[in-house]
């Protein structure tokens, strides 16, 4: 069977599976719709959390980014896993003990203020929409490359599926579909990784393989890669170019942001008790770590493979995947030295960085581009980082079913995250805005109806973002983590661990954190992008890492304001005492 | 301070002590070994990896998992101890 037919088959089977599960776990009450009736087993919740967490970005982009960043890519590995330690030790058990439906519920109650709740809702909606638009785009890319449908049709199919099971099943349906999606995505990630590890090092465990010797060569893989890269004028793979303070702050912002992300936190409301909340954080991290420890191995294999299969190879003999991805515009080649061969080197091959294709072909059949060749380096190739994971099985010449499996896995990763995010958004609207703020006498039945309606609206907006992606989608990702780190995380954490922080302190802290982080990012990313380099940054901290400073400002402001305003009332102190008990 | 309040106080302070010591390890393996000391540790090799690089891309993640399970286990014990203490009072 051809790759395309196999992909149709795999995607079809997995979609049928998700829909069957959704129909079997329909939600009947708001408790089932918002938090799956608190009846989810910790292992199932761990898997669902892992699928919820690992998005198209983790599955498709992360290994590619690490592949091109080398050691600096560690910020994502440590940042996106270390947050779970904070979540397990500082937030999850207490929020479960508190036992409501949403994150704004906790902030609104603990700080006895609907203004605080509203600020939390705003942070939540900004963070979640940023994320969901990226997922829809991921769905579109997979459909267009592997099923050869138009990107927009792909987005529409994805929207339809997510809408179907999110509206029908709410949190309950989503949880059990996510369990299935986790199994699909992790299997799809590991199979090619194991194959490639065996091909390159003979070691079937990728985590050990990338520290192993290369087959037919006494060299260790990483030192060989360092050598190849130095020869081509790159920094060695295992050394970094980012400054230590920047790496520190980005990692911290990603960790704190992870712990403050509403769609992850809400998963801990779905388990029966506090002990189960702790356990599911542990299981979630195991399930996540399986992918996150494989990703850096895949990254280094892919980088070596890329050089070995294309460097100094004439375009006419270039592997088929090179031309396939060139066809959809994610690879471009400009023969700068007119020798007909592909050459890699450090630096951007041409200016601007992203290729603009003419509709004509060159002497060797390559797609010609309008960009001017950049002088000062010999690099001739543009490669979009997003293709590394998707193209890896082709680069390593694995059988067609592995390629089809990766496509199904990428869809599982994108759909599971999109569904979780949409649910959080709809809950914030129907529960926090309507039921708790503007329409307090809403009946449960009506609230459920509004929850379903707001998912519909959210799906449509997310789909529009996927079809008409705002140019800044990739850049706004820095927002999501920075904002969560500077607003929600400190507000929740202080709410549990300090009895002094009052309403005024928390609101002022969240607003300062929000405004500072937002304006720093907007200043460098949108207003003065030409100044976005370390000599202009505050203390050399990039916009990706500034959420950490935002968090420090938030803490400082909260304590300062709380010390000059009246302390929280006695009934709040009682609530704090209660959530601290086992 | 009555007996149950004292128990509650004790429970909370042993909880804080546990969380603090686990977070100290969390900080050392990631921010310490993986970022601040990475270049120093890179002079040692560990199963074919430079040691600092290994902590940054592998080791810290394994230790994160272990930390959470140590926490789960210790808290379970602490919960049981506290439950026994409070039933003795009744």
UniProtKB/TrEMBL annotation, chain B:
Give the residue spans that cross the bilayer. Answer: 20-41, 53-72
InterPro entries in the record, alphabetically? Na_symporter_ssu
Q: Domain named Sodium symporter small subunit: which ranges?
A: 9-83
Q: Which Pfam families match?
A: DUF4212 (PF13937)
Question: Top-down, what is the taxonomic lineage of the species of origin?
Answer: unclassified sequences, metagenomes, ecological metagenomes
Q: What is this protein called?
A: Sodium symporter small subunit domain-containing protein
Keywords assigned by UniProt, alphabetized: Membrane, Transmembrane, Transmembrane helix
